[in-house]
Design brief:
It is built from 12 helices and 4 strands. It has 258 residues and is an alpha+beta fold. The protein has 2 domains: 2-169, NADH Oxidase; 185-241, no CATH class. The mean pLDDT is 95. Bound molecules: flavin mononucleotide (FMN). Flavin mononucleotide is lined by residues 13-14, 16, 68, 70, 132-136, 172.
């Protein structure tokens, strides 16, 4: 049993091509029941999952998520929300206090929502479904509040596209455990150690990126291209980080977590 679970964790990969068929109700019930078995702070389950299956809504969602093919092709999108609205309202109505309204609560319950999402990823794999996280759900918080009709104290934390897989990618390499695991206190790695850590990714990237017209286009103007330059100067640019971060702050203010 232990090995079965470990095998599942090792074989799971993100799926970005899906068959058009909707998963059946029985499979979906199993998926969602396994999802909400996730741990949560105080077992409060201060998260909500919005399922989007309507093709027009999915198209509109995709526009807000930077037009990724997989959002369109997957029959289902699940948006995981940090949600203290439900408990706040109930507690206040029962003589308690609806004070789960602070930045602390936002962070705590965003974590709950992300943990539930990862349960869905693993349950999907066990059921033969495929899934991929869509990080761009966080890019346009204000538009997302409107699109999902979110009340105060509710904000998106994570999103998954889910469906029957129509591809079988190989698992991607990971950093070795000894580089990720620090013991007792933080280990301050030297630049030589970091260069060694990223060497393989750098070599693989340089061999492959030329074949990608979009990556090529993004790399215009950054001089000689390598993996860290591509990631930091072309893909996750500082401008984008600042713009999305400031949009996130506005979302947090609108949701009253700030
Ligand atoms: C928080 C988060 C956001 C992600 N956002 C996207 C995304 O927007 N689009 C996408 O195609 N993949 C996205 N991914 C998937 C990662 O690219 C993927 O997990 C990573 O490359 C490792 O590959 P694997 O999942 O196949 O092991 C995201 C993953 C995480 C955890």
């Amino acid at each position: 049993m232990e090995h079965e679970t470990l095998n599942l964790l090792h074989r799971r990969v993100s799926i970005r091509k899906f068959k058009p068929e909707m998963p059946d109700e029985e499979t979906l019930t199993k998926l969602l029941e396994a999802t909400i078995a996730a741990p949560s702070a105080g077992n409060l389950q201060n998260y909500t999952i919005i399922q989007i299956a309507d093709p027009q809504r999915k198209k509109a969602l995709n526009k807000l998520c930077m037009e990724q093919d997989c959002v369109d092709s997957a029959p289902l999108a699940f948006i995981f929300l940090a949600d203290t609205s439900r408990f706040n309202r109930y507690a206040a109505s029962q003589g308690g206090s609806g004070h789960f309204t602070w930045l602390f609560n936002y962070v705590l319950h965003t974590t709950d929502a992300a943990i539930a999402a990862q349960n869905m990823v693993i349950a999907a794999e066990a059921l033969g479904l495929g899934s991929v996280y869509i990080g761009s759900i966080l890019n346009r918080m204000l538009d997302m509040i409107e699109f999902l009709d979110l009340p105060e104290y509710v904000l998106p934390a994570a999103m998954l596209s889910v469906g029957w897989p129509d591809e079988k990618p190989e698992p991607k390499p990971r950093h070795p455990v000894e580089m990720v695991l620090h013991k007792e206190t933080y280990r301050h790695d030297s630049l030589t150690e970091l260069s060694e850590l990223y060497r393989e990714r750098n070599e693989n990237f340089c061999g492959r990126y030329q074949a990608h017209p979009r990556k090529n286009e993004l790399c215009q103007g950054i001089g000689e291209v390598n993996y860290p330059k591509y990631v930091s100067l072309a893909h996750y640019t500082e401008d984008k980080m600042i713009e999305r971060g400031s949009e996130m702050l506005k979302g947090m203010k609108q949701a009253k977590f700030l």
